[in-house]
């Protein structure tokens, strides 16, 4: 990816530059001039950026340890208007922080005080302590309240640090990611998922929602936008137990363990799901990296994730004005649906993962669910999962 970073002119100087001058930032990239073009390689995300000459000079000074205030002073000494110099430096630092090209220095060992909120959550394979500055803790922390545990030591520490418009996430003292305030739960959820995939014992991570009925798991598979979250919440309202709305782990016995993150409901589903869950319309609105607006619906009756045999696998086929139907699938079609978007620990399907999938195919009924109206889909699945 190539992105052009061009500092904006005529920005007013003031508190923003002062804040950057007071902070300690570490450049995360290498700059080279090739055939007259300034090329910056971002070492954290592996992306390539182009800089104009002014931005390149600012980068070299920053990488050389020149204080932020001194960088603008050097530009003024070369004849640049002071306001203009401040504007260039502010714009460059703001853009580079947003892109992860400069990162704040690791925070000191944090201590939970009245200025912080400490939350310990458990996900399969790992317990995580999340330390929020009190100014940004709410409502973000409420998205993970159903995962909270007490009197359990944490394996990993997430420390959130706020700087101007960005919130930076440090994992055990190492910078991991940054976001805007309205993206905090999405950023934490993504890092928690990374912890699960790195620590939990599983054979395959399936891109599937999971519900349970009579101690058996219903897996709902479909491409992004197929309606997994909306259907999952409608089934919860109809009496199914909640296990996951997006990612489900498969263990060596072919049993499913859901990752019970709070479902993120996109704006298109707010009206219909608001009838089932009136609290949804009162939930804060967040933005995903793709700019879609979501509200999180925290499960009311969350149960600790336990492995359950898979009883049903359903592939979604939502189409406008379609006649509702639930068609039985051949094992190969079910296998294709399960592998769509699946993640294997070593990037390749191992023998034990294949054996686990075969166990699912032996025990589960596979269906293709075609529907247009949500109520029709719910009724068909209620009948099939008795």
TrEMBL record:
- InterPro entries per record: P-loop_NTPase, PQQD, PqqD_sf
Q: Which UniProt keywords apply?
A: Kinase, Transferase
Gene3D superfamilies, per database record = Coenzyme PQQ synthesis protein D (PqqD), P-loop containing nucleotide triphosphate hydrolases
Q: Does the keyword Ion transport apply?
A: no
Q: State the source organism's domain of life.
A: Bacteria
Which is one GO molecular function term here? kinase activity
Coiled coil regions, renumbered to chain: none
Is GTP-binding among the key words of this record? no
* Signal sequence residues: none
- Under which name does UniProt file this protein? HPr kinase
């Amino acid at each position: 990816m190539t992105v052009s970073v061009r500092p904006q002119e005529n920005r007013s100087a003031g508190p923003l530059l002062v804040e950057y001058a007071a902070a300690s930032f570490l450049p995360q990239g290498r700059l080279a001039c090739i055939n007259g073009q300034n090329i910056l390689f971002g070492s954290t995300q592996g992306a390539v950026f182009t800089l104009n000459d002014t931005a390149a000079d600012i980068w070299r000074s920053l990488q050389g340890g020149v204080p932020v205030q001194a960088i603008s002073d050097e530009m003024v000494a070369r004849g640049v208007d002071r306001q203009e110099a401040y504007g260039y430096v502010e714009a460059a630092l703001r853009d580079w922080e947003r892109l992860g090209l400069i990162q704040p220095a690791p925070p000191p060992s944090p201590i939970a005080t009245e200025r912080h909120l400490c939350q310990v959550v458990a996900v399969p394979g790992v317990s995580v302590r999340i330390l929020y500055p009190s100014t940004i803790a709410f409502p973000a922390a409420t998205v993970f309240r159903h995962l909270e545990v007490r009197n359990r030591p944490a394996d990993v520490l997430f420390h959130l640090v706020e700087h101007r418009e960005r919130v930076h996430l440090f994992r055990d003292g190492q910078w991991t990611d940054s976001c805007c305030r309205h993206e905090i739960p999405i950023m934490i959820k993504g890092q928690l998922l990374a912890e699960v995939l790195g620590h939990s014992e599983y054979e395959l991570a399936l891109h599937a929602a999971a519900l349970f009925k009579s101690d058996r798991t219903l897996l709902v598979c479909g491409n992004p936008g197929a309606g997994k979250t909306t259907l999952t919440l409608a089934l919860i309202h109809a009496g199914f137990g909640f296990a996951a709305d997006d990612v489900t782990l498969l263990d060596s016995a072919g049993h499913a363990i859901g990752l019970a993150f709070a479902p993120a409901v996109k704006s298109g589903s707010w009206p219909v799901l608001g009838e089932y869950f009136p609290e949804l319309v009162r939930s804060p609105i967040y933005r995903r990296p793709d700019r879609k607006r979501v509200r999180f619906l925290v499960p009311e009756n969350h149960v600790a994730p336990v492995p359950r045999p898979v009883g049903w696998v359903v592939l979604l086929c939502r189409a406008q004005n379609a006649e509702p139907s639930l068609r039985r699938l051949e094992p190969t079609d079910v296998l294709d649906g399960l592998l769509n978007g699946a993640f294997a620990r070593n990037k390749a399907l191992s023998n034990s993962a294949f054996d686990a999938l075969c166990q699912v195919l032996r025990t589960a009924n596979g269906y293709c669910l075609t529907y247009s109206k949500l109520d029709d889909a719910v009724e068909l699945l209620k009948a099939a999962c008795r």
